[in-house]
């Protein structure tokens, strides 16, 4: 298993994983224009958004996206993990930890003091995983306001 930054050839697999991720989190997913949009944002060297993929010998088995943000309260930067998803067969073998450790190393290089992310309260497996990493949970409500 290898973890690396995403390439153009990975986009179809990433989209399939995004669909599975949305279904896992009981959310909707619209596929239209995704390949073009993801290419523009995930593969653009000037983009702040980074994407890692976990690759077995035969396929992409997971992905993570993350980007640097500014915290007014801390007057400093943090890394925000937007997505981390592994196929069911890829869970529980250390792949998730390896991805998070790579994000952590990248965060240090970017002078970020903390990494933030969220997961649904019903995703107990992920919550246990994040707790084992040493992450702390802060309960907040997440709001969505369409524009």
From TrEMBL:
Annotated N-acetyltransferase domain residues: 1-147
Highest taxon listed in the record's lineage: Bacteria
Pfam families documented for this protein: Acetyltransf_1
GO MF annotation: an example: N-acetyltransferase activity
Key words of the record: Acyltransferase, Transferase
Full protein name: L-amino acid N-acyltransferase YncA
Lineage, broadest ranks: Bacteria, Pseudomonadati, Bacteroidota, Flavobacteriia, Flavobacteriales
């Amino acid at each position: 298993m290898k973890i690396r930054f995403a390439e153009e050839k990975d986009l179809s697999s990433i989209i399939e994983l995004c669909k599975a991720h949305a279904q896992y989190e009981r959310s909707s997913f619209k596929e239209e224009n995704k390949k073009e949009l993801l290419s523009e944002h995930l593969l653009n060297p000037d983009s702040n958004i980074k994407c890692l993929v976990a690759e077995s010998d035969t396929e992409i088995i997971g992905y993570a996206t993350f980007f640097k943000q500014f915290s007014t309260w801390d007057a400093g930067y943090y890394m925000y993990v937007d997505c981390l998803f592994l196929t069911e067969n890829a869970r529980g073998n250390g792949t998730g930890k390896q991805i998070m450790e790579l994000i952590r190393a990248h965060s240090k290089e970017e002078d970020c003091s903390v990494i933030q992310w969220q997961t649904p309260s019903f995703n107990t497996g992920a919550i246990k995983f994040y707790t084992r990493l040493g992450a702390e949970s802060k309960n907040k409500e997440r709001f969505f306001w369409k524009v």
